[in-house]
Amino acid sequence: MAEKLSRDADKNLYDTSDATDCVLERTVWHKLDRWILPVITMFYLLSFLDRTNIGNSRIAGLQKDLNMSNKEYTIALTLTYVAYVASELPSNLVLKRIGPDLLLPTIMILWGLVATLQGVVTSYHGLLACRFFIGLLEGGVPGIVLYLSFFFPRQRLQTRIATFFSAASLSGAFSGILAYGIIRLDGKRGHSSSAWIFLIEGIITITCGLAGFFLLPRSPIHARFLNQQEKDYVAEKLRKDGVMSKDRKFDAFSWSEVGRAFTSPQVALVGIIYFLNGVALYGLAYFTPSIVQSLGFTAAAAQLMTVPPFAVSAVATFAAALISDFYKCRGAMIIVGSVICVAGFGLFLGSSNHHVQYGSLFLSIPGTYLIQPALAAWNANNSAPYIRRATTMALGFIMTNSGGILATWLFGDLSPAPRFTKATQTLLIFSIFMGIFSALNIWYLSIQNRGKANARRNTDSASANDVEELGDRSPWFVYSL
């Protein structure tokens, strides 16, 4: 009888524990989604908007206002990415030490201020200075992905990342709508329509940056909207997933961990895809208004005509992330995106019909944008501990923005409108290679996972310290495909 009562008590204990976990599972992630994602999404949307709205300003008359040549315009874009690339890795490495709740809103306010000043510059050299500091300050933006990894386990990460990458697509749509309205302010208070685009959008960024100080928690344990039980639950999930170390020494800065990120084959393979995709991403982000205008639309109409492809892209990006998270298929989703890109760029290149060329944007833009969250999640999923992951994620964005440098020259100087032949040919070839390198990475990670499975069978157990010290190279760390 006593033994039976003991078994019943144990069963009730486990049932209660399971029920509690189910309730926490339902409520905790929803709370984080409600409190974290809207703020981060707005942060990313405005960063992309302030970096790329120069494309809308261009067709509103920026080059004429500042007496710039096409080559000078391209140099201004390039300078943005040179500064951006230089600041990405340092900002990722100091994010946790300074605290994302302080660093992210601060840089947002500062780049918003510089973005606003673009509206009052009167010379090309003044614009160059602004573009340099926008790039330097926005180099901290990739820390958003790292920040999300403080809150969500690996397999929940891509859908959340896709939320703000969808915002990047929406920024293209939003920028077109906003620019269409703003150009009617031409001449008001002595400012041209191209200047008003910078002034209004920059002020919006400053305002949202100030709000960020009150809305962003430093980490799950500092989140005011979680009770203690919920904080402990999140922390335990992150530790089990390898996102958070049980011993803080494994999250401390280490140059050796920075070096291991540079020497990881999966980081190199994904980095190549990041670069290839970055060329398409920023080429389309900056030059879609110019591409649409070259198809015969007026400047005002071109602003509006950029909206539908980017709106479709936002929906496609989020849908692709849901599928990728559900089936845990990061690499396969990149291959799907590359195929869509091939179709889009192929149509633009092969047709001289303006309606077909415009329609091709509904393939090339969504195909390009849906790849980004899969890449970011793939990088974050397959690197540990913290410093190695922070370095890995910074390297990915460095490669993306290096691709942005090439994009500015492809569309800005090397491949003239209206056909943009060299640029489109390059993007078509790059899209094919994105699929090839994604398949290579899947193959490499599959081999590594089989080797890890064999190692686990031949090893009785591993201490927590052994697992955390080895990070993603531990036999108990399974790579995401």
From TrEMBL:
Transmembrane segments: 74-95, 102-120, 132-152, 164-183, 195-216, 267-288, 300-324, 331-350, 356-378, 390-411, 423-447
Location relative to the cell: Membrane
Protein name: Major facilitator superfamily domain-containing protein
Organism: Mycena rosella
Superkingdom per UniProt: Eukaryota
Membrane topology label: Multi-pass membrane protein
GO cellular component: membrane
Keywords per UniProt: Membrane, Transmembrane, Transmembrane helix, Transport
